[in-house]
């Protein structure tokens, strides 16, 4: 998540959300969810459904982070571009992709909103944007997406939110996790009036705020997994403003909601909670005061030293360039 919204912010967030040279990339990949082959196949099947016109020549992963999504699609596309607004992210992705797939991948440091200045129009068959749209200026970003894609090309945007313990008996553990998460993210307040207000609002809306202009996009689909859970990384009641949004969903969109506690499921204990919270905080970790340390100790007791199943709320949006 390295793309930057153009709003002014007075919080302590860096210019680009993860623009930190000391960020722990191994922890980032270890504690965040693993996108499964079945999930990627949802995107590929949508793209293939447009055969015989569907092509697999060029894919572009936007907000690529460490490049894991771009790396996955190297097995399906002739060429892969990975871009990110953050210099540290782009450097990590470049090292990863150019070592594993030399000559097939190109990595550039460039914000999503300005990609039309960097690349010709209508070249990409597939655009992916994982876990980054909230930090973009969405109007400009969607304009870039439309510029980059071929007519008939596929746009895939997805986002996952706050993890949750699946077992109903873990409600106390979930409560403690949310206290810890609130303390961590509150160190970046104020949210209101800054880049994070726009981000938290679209997340709180389950991306209903996201709008695909009719003159550029067709065959829009939204898949919401575990929609009974909150998407925000800290409870919405803990924000310093009340999120309000306009519904951007069109009347011709296909919308599916499903409850699936096995979606990207994994097991985790206290180490997972601490790792996940820290992997979402690229800024200096000043949240773990004595009260938070006490919550971690309570969580250890509540989990009884064991790991328990964890799942995620997820939104996947698919659209075709007209």
Strand and helix layout:
Layout (H helix, E strand, L loop, with lengths): L24 H7 L5 H12 L9 E5 L5 H6 L5 E6 L2 H14 L4 E5 L5 H4 L5 E7 L7 H11 E12 L3 E2 L5 H16 L8 H10 L12 E9 L28 E5 L7 E3 L1 H10 L10 H14 L4 E4 L2 E8 L1
Parallel strand pairs: 1-2, 1-4, 2-3, 4-5, 7-8
Antiparallel strand pairs: 5-11, 6-10, 7-11, 9-10
Helix pairs in contact: 1-9, 7-10
Describe it for me?
It is built from 10 helices and 11 strands. By secondary structure, the protein is an alpha/beta fold. The strands form 2 sheets. Strands 3-2-1-4-5-11-7-8 form an 8-stranded mixed sheet. A 3-stranded antiparallel sheet has the order 6-10-9. Helix 4 (87-100) links the parallel strand 2 (79-84) and strand 3. Helix 1 crosses helix 9 (270-279) and helix 7 (171-186) runs antiparallel to helix 10 (290-303). The protein is globular. The two termini are 27 Å apart. Mean pLDDT is 91; it is low at 1-16.
Helix percentage: 25-40%
Report, as a whole number of angstroms, the end-to-end distance.
27 Å
Helix count equals: 10
Q: Within the largest sheet, what's the order of strands?
A: 3-2-1-4-5-11-7-8
Structural class: alpha/beta
* Outline type: globular
Mean pLDDT over the residues: 91
* SSE order: HHEHEHEHEHEEHHEEEHHEE
Work out the oligomeric state of the chains in this entry: single chain
- Give Rg in angstroms: 19 Å
In total, how many beta strands? 11
How much of the sequence lies in strands comes to 15-25%
Low-confidence stretches: 1-16
User: What summary fits the major beta sheet?
Assistant: 8 strands, mixed
